[in-house]
Write a structure and sequence with these properties.
By secondary structure, the protein is of the alpha/beta class. It has 28 helices and 17 strands.
Amino acid sequence: MFNFKFPFLILLLLLPLSSSSSSSSSIEGLIKRLDAHKPSPLLQESAVKALLNRLLPTYFSSFDFKIISKDVCGGYSCFWVTNYKNSSSKSPEILIKGTTAVEIASGLHWYIKYSCGAHVSWDKTGGVQIASIPPPGNLPPVVKEGVMVQRPVPWNYYQNVVTSSYSYVWWDWERWEKEIDWMALQGINLPLAFTGQETIWQKVFMDFNITAQELNNFFGGPAFLAWARMGNLHAWGGPLSQNWLDQQLVLQKQILSRMIALGMTPVLPSFSGNVPAALRDIFPSANITRLGDWNTVNGNPRWCCTYLLDPSDPLFIQIGEAFIKKQIKEYGDVTDIYNCDTFNENSPPTSDPTYISTLGSAVYEAMAKANKDAVWLMQGWLFYSDSSFWKPPQMKALLHSVPFGKMIVLDLFADVKPVWESSSQFYGTPYVWCMLHNFGGNIEMYGVLDTLASGPIVARVSENSTMVGVGMCMEGIEHNPVVYELMAEMAYRKDKVHVEEWLRIYSRRRYGKAVKQAESAWEILHRSIYNCSDGIADHNTDYIVKFPDWDPYLNIFSSFSKQISITMHSNRRSMLTDSDPTLPQSHMWYSANDVIDALKLFIDAGEELAGSLTYRYDLVDLTRQVLSKLANQVYLDVLFAFQHKDLKALESHSEKFEQIITDIDELLASDDNFLLGTWLESAKKLALTPSEKRQYEWNARTQVTMWYDTTKTNQSQLHDYANKFWSGLLVDYYLPRASMYFNRLSESLRHNTRFEIEEWRKEWISYSNKWQQDTKVYPVKAQGDAHVISKSLFQKYFGNK
């Protein structure tokens, strides 16, 4: 049994909001206004009691919750865990007080973690481990004075504008309820709430005389709504049915109601200028321009080149005001914070600071017209991704275009490429230190744990800090639970975390007991997989899931032989970087041999952890990771054999690559959390008609494979961006692709003919199109013993290492 005793703890708030007193007072005023709109203490206490009943139903009477004022916490947000003073056998054992229901939920999570050795993660990453919690009536007491933890910064932000498409798109209320519970336990109090906005837009644009039919060409399909909202594309995967629109609006109201009951402040969307083409006909004098192409194969106007209403046009403010007013009418006065990313991957037409300032001012005015207390929350991704445009004069012009304190910036990629360091703390603008971490919802073990454990602290205590929160802004969720647990904790950490010790406790909590091999494995993973320091954004570019569209006949690699001989335990990111930069590179930032050792330890730990779902998930994920990196080397062996016209070696290595895919698929099939069928069935479940069912399944299949448009000989420019290691997808999609390519290489050597890359593309794209349109049903339940399979695969590929 765990009993992590820790002394009475008060984490003092160190919050230098801004070098500008006006900015500081504005943020303080915002916090007071938001606090004033919180539900009654009784409603919040009831909401967190209901959460307890869902999480730990047998402990419903073991805890008591109480909302307290910030005065009790020195004027700041906090939770306070104490022993319940009534000694009656029927009375609660632990009293958790907090300034909101979120703080109480965080206190509950903190207590079961550090006093009871429990663990909570997403269901798809192993779920909860609560077997270590003593039975009701025997809960371990905390120290006499209790445990008080204050937030060092006011906000813990959550989500990326594309998470709604990569992860949430097919969710129903049952899944959303679990997510909001998870959010509350992690201390998230500023979540993005983007569901159902198309229904609001339909009402708004119809007020401007645009028909529902004309909107069919404006909205994207369900799996591509995030990019239609940003004006990157239109119509792709659509149209949206009225059933979808109605369902999503109902769902959004449920989401908002629960967030608010738990004391969260939802962030709602606002108008960014993205408009239907039909608006040009209704308002011919409006300043509407057509944007350039965004990632179509050949600039196909059927999908690309959306229309942007210039913020300087009076119509912009009219539409923006109407949209926020319509949200208030539907949802009530639930927030003052609105997200807008007008310039996300769409640069302004000129770099003139005066013009940029005018645009920013207009964007904010559209919010403020509808809500005088509105605050603009903006993703700061543009300052990194388009840094050649956003120089200091342009950044200042945008950031200072609104009153101080009326804009909050998300330093979206602060875990790898922090902007706050080089922008004088965003030139006095309050910002949130964010972890981006994931792209496309890819499944890959990856992290920068040491940075997460220290980066937010360094930023907060830096001179003239304007940091007002921490955040998690991943594109997709439900992977790498260790990363998200640590990052969420940083919302309550005043000092840097000693990661090695934290991981030792994490391992015990995650698996329910101390297992030496597991703890030793985590020590290795900390200094390898979870210590990436190369500064590269981690898309999963392993060759199985992102197979190179590469023509060996067009590429002369003089040092190929030298590079190919580098063993797979090299720390180099790519074995072909120096020889031929045209070959897409897989990301390798650690010693593969070290991680193979960690896998051996994990397998050995299985003797003591049989039946643990959290262990099974980690074992499968780590085995998958090791084999995928091995496959990268085998792929290069194939190319080496082809260059040297060694048909026997080429066929041998091709067979091995294909076998690894098959073996990984069997491994993934042994855990419910790595199944393609789950994704597809959740999409079909939302459909109310046969046509919707086909459309939703096509959306689901397309997003994780080709993503966007193709021609007969050109793959989508975004193919495999959202790749997944899911059983079913490997053997039915990734395996045929590799086989087609390798077969043509073999035929080229066998008949001494040129390898025709275009013929492979035709064959492959045709296959992909058919697969995307297919309706084959895939399993939603695991088959096989993950530990037995992992152990067998280790022996097969690494012998007695």
